[in-house]
Design brief:
heterodimer, A: about 425 residues, mainly beta, Rossmann fold, Neuraminidase, 2 domains, five-stranded mixed β-sheet, four-stranded antiparallel β-sheet, 3 helices, 31 strands, globular, disordered N terminus, B: about 180 residues, alpha+beta, 60s Ribosomal Protein L30, Chain: A, four-stranded mixed β-sheet, 5 helices, elongated
């Protein structure tokens, strides 16, 4: 499936597809996907609007999703012919040959008796006349965006071989009030800014939320009681509890292992900070680092066998990698300045970080063996990178000089202009999750 | 023990308290927190005697400057003289440091101050430490010159426990006078 995408290199002659032309210059293979409106057998009023309108909106959203991935060009619904629901499962390939597209999205929207809607979508290869992927869902009519995003994820995987991030969520800390006494609330939002929800109500300061890989739990740091400590709760706010039993200890920087069974974090005591790991359900923590410096910000490799972390044992903050039992600790960042907040990519090939160069803090990536370090952002203060599930995008926190306001931004690995996450207020500590089911 | 000392101080400061104490709520019962034990009064006295409740640090540093040491020596003397007042040593870092490192650095700075106070004679059990990382900057502005303001440790006095007064013992019931 992956090899055929290179057959549809877009040339500069397709002037109407400006993004494609721009990307073709950078040499990246691009697939053109036609996304006509999804038809409906019968136009019915639902809680999410008329099914005929939903068919247009879902097609527009699929097109926008695929286009945003950078390696796909789309032709949007208003430039394409309409078709009937019966065509959805049996495309009339000859009718699309003039579209200059390499692939075609079809499907339909149908109201159900229970008030929900059925959304079905297919991806067809217009050259080989074969189906590349399909997805179908019964969802609440007001959740039509989820259905569209999950269609996009299915198609992204079929085209690129990698999971998409279109149905993924970002958890972060919503910030309101004066910065000297901020109100901080845990919040979660779809990556496109829809479906925004608060998880805590701002009664105590909270930072550093991290979703579990299954998207059902959240680990975070609370200052309630005067001592910052790691807590874990279910996403619906239930089962909120401290990670560690016993006497109060200052713990922070939690992160789930890829299998969701363990949590790595830091404990600070007597001026010394080290990294520990403990079962996600609690228990006795195992100590992984043992230097007099500050060892913190752990991040698991996707296979769970290694942990990247930051340490100032050599004088300044730098990125280190160790085996997940604490053995084999070695420094990998040497580019000058200091490096912090490592985040291992879901593909395993890169570690994102924030680098202080003496005047500004910015996001960069480096290979786990320490090679190929390069910077991706160019702000006054960009920090705390977290990867989208497709490994192509990073969400991070950007602070505005002067006001000090922070907002989560997303940026693609190829260094596109960062885009501010569409949320209702300022926010910090974003964490991107793949899970959403 | 501390309550006893607090009581003693209270008695010394308020002559009325030297009198037999009436039961709570009765006329003549002393104000619950004598002025000696109110936090604003303690803080003002602490600041006046120690010079400041704050010591500051250079970027990434937890080293106590000679000026900081002088301040902390004076803070220690005050704390030794007020053993019934517990203090929370709260470390902060500047917003231009990353979140986790700020927390660890704040803790490291608080530990340095606590160790200095203990070395100066303050009983360890009188001191707690905490770190706020970069969660509580002193100014809402963000620019390169905020280092000096935000990289700090604050000695925060805690409200001493309320004095508790022994309830007057019930009058022993004298046996009714026997007839002569």
């Amino acid at each position: 499936m992956r090899s055929w995408s290179s057959k549809f290199l877009v040339t500069c002659s397709l002037a109407m597809l400006a993004p494609a032309a721009a990307s073709a210059q950078s040499g990246e293979p691009q697939l053109v996907v036609a996304v006509p409106s999804l038809p409906t057998p019968k136009n019915v009023d639902t809680a999410g609007g008329q099914t005929g309108v939903l068919g247009i909106q879902i097609a527009q959203m699929i097109a926008a999703d695929l286009r945003s991935s950078g390696s796909i060009v789309t032709i949007d619904p208003d430039k394409l012919r309409r078709y009937t629901p019966t065509e959805a499962t049996a495309p009339l390939y000859r009718n699309w040959t003039n579209s200059n597209a390499g692939a075609l999205v079809q499907g339909y929207v149908q109201a159900r008796d229970d008030g929900r809607i059925t959304v079905v979508c297919y991806l067809y290869d217009l050259k080989t006349h074969r189906e590349m992927g399909r997805a179908g869902f019964a969802v609440g009519a007001e959740d039509w965006r989820r259905a569209a995003h999950r269609c996009s994820d299915t198609f992204h995987k079929a085209i690129t071989g990698l999971p998409g991030h279109f149905d993924s969520r970002i958890t972060y800390v919503a910030e309101t009030g004066d910065r000297t006494q901020p109100v901080k609330r845990l919040a979660i939002v779809n990556w496109d800014g829809t479906n925004h929800n608060f998880l805590t109500q701002g009664e105590g300061t909270v930072i550093s939320p991290r979703l579990s890989p299954d998207g059902q739990r959240i680990a975070y740091v609370s200052f309630t009681g005067g001592m910052p400590h790691v807590r874990v709760m279910d996403l619906d706010g239930s089962n909120d509890r401290p990670l560690l039993a016993g006497p109060p200890a200052m713990s922070f920087a939690p992160v789930f292992s890829p299998d969701g069974r363990r949590i790595a974090f830091s404990i600070a005591a007597e001026g010394n900070t080290d990294i520990y790991v403990v079962n996600a359900g609690g228990g006795f923590p195992q100590r992984l680092t043992n230097t007099p410096g500050i060892d913190t910000a752990p991040s698991f490799s996707p296979d769970g066998r290694s942990i990247a972390f930051e340490s100032d044992r050599g004088g300044s903050q730098q990125i280190y990698v160790m085996n997940s039992d604490g053995s084999g600790q070695r420094r990998i960042s040497f580019a000058g300045g200091s490096h912090a907040s490592p985040a291992w990519s879901p593909k395993g090939d890169l570690i994102a970080f924030s680098r202080w160069n003496g005047a500004s803090l910015n996001i960069g990536v480096i290979a786990p063996d320490g090679s190929g370090e390069r910077m991706i952002t160019n702000g006054w203060q960009d920090e705390r990178p977290s990867w989208a599930p497709d490994g192509e995008f990073i969400v991070f926190q950007r602070t505005q000089q002067g006001s000090g306001q922070t907002w989560p931004y997303t940026v693609s690995l190829n260094g596109s202009e960062p885009k501010r996450l569409a949320i209702p207020q300022a926010g910090s500590d974003p964490d991107w999750s793949g899970a959403s089911q | 023990m501390k309550i006893m000392i607090a009581l003693f101080l209270f008695a010394a400061a308020a002559p009325a308290a030297a009198q037999p104490i009436p039961p709570p709520g009765a006329p003549g019962y002393p104000m619950v927190q004598g002025p000696v034990l109110a936090i604003p009064v303690l803080e003002a006295d602490f600041r006046a005697k120690a010079g400041s409740e704050i010591v500051r640090f250079a970027r990434d540093s937890y080293v106590l400057t000679p000026q900081s040491q002088a301040t902390l020596t004076a803070q220690a003397q005050w704390l030794i003289q007020h053993p019934f007042v517990r203090a929370s040593i709260e470390g902060h870092a500047d917003g231009r440091q990353t979140r986790e490192y700020s927390l660890a650095l704040g803790e490291r700075r608080a530990a340095a101050v606590r160790n200095y106070l203990i070395a100066s004679g303050v009983p360890p059990e009188q001191l707690d430490t905490a770190s706020w990382g970069k969660e509580r900057p002193t100014t809402s502005a963000a620019h390169d010159a905020t280092w000096l303001q935000n990289s700090r440790v604050v000695t925060v006095l805690k409200q001493p426990p309320q004095p508790t007064y022994p309830m007057p013992l019930p009058q022993p019931q004298l046996p009714p006078p026997q007839g002569y």
